[in-house]
Design brief:
The protein has a domain of about 140 residues: Umud Fragment, subunit A (Ribbon). The radius of gyration is 32 Å and the shape is elongated. The N and C termini lie far apart (about 105 Å). Strands 1, 2, 3, 4, 9, 10, 11 and 12 form an 8-stranded antiparallel sheet that branches. Strands 7-6-5-8 form a 4-stranded antiparallel sheet, with no helix packed on it. The protein contains 3 helices and 12 strands, in the order H-H-E-E-E-E-E-E-E-E-E-H-E-E-E. It is an alpha+beta fold and about 210 residues long.
């Protein structure tokens, strides 16, 4: 009678899981899966921070409007995105709305509109704003009809000569605005950036380009 060899029963037995947390069949253990998931999560967080932090601190910044000084252009409690990059390559333009640190208390942030540019003489009188510069040595009355509410009165009687790095800023709601009529010229070093996007409320969402 022919002898039939017995099967090697040792090879049929399951092998114990190795120290890496997976068996020889390639199926990951629960501990190994959790470890890999944690590692991938850390990688995602690190990559996200590497992308988001530079954008947050060097390119754009959220800003929450508090007060009525810029009505009707910007209302109280509106949420804005500030472009911090543009002014690294160019100077503010007349008519742009900027966010800046209050010169008399840099811990506070203000939002106003640029009215006077470096080197100009600004005269506020009889509710008119007259600007004297190299192109207009006799001065010209600033037309603000594009952004001021009809009948807006600009109170004050003051003349200011701006230095080479100074701006004259006003709130659109002239009767409820603490601006250059009170604290004087705004040094450029205090400017954070220009208003770029209004994100909230959604029914007033808008993108603001440079004039």
């Amino acid at each position: 009678m022919e002898n039939i060899p017995k099967p090697d029963t040792q090879e049929a037995l399951p092998k114990p899981a190795d120290a890496a947390g997976a068996d020889d069949g390639g199926e990951p253990s629960l501990l190994g899966s959790i470890g890999r998931f944690a590692l991938e999560l850390v990688e995602i967080v690190v990559i996200s921070l590497a992308i988001i932090l530079p954008i947050r601190y060097f390119l754009i910044q959220p800003f929450y409007v508090k007060g009525a000084s810029m009505e009707p252009t910007f209302d109280d409690h509106e949420y804005l995105i500030i472009d911090e990059l543009s002014y690294r390559f160019r100077a503010p333009v007349r008519g742009e709305v900027v966010v800046f640190r209050y010169p008399l208390d840099p811990r506070q942030y203000f939002i106003k509109r640029v009215v006077g540019l470096p080197g100009e003489k600004i005269r506020v009188s009889d509710s008119a704003i007259v600007i004297v510069n190299a192109e207009n040595p006799d001065g010209f009355a600033l037309d603000e009809s594009a952004y001021l509410a009809p009948g807006t009165v600009t109170h004050g009687d003051r003349t200011i000569e701006l230095g080479p790095d100074e701006y004259f800023v006003l709130g659109d709601n002239r009767s409820a605005s603490l601006d250059s009529r009170t604290f004087g010229p705004l040094p450029f070093k205090h400017v954070v950036g220009r208003v770029w996007i209004r994100g909230w409320p959604l029914d007033r969402a808008a993108i603001f380009s440079a004039p």
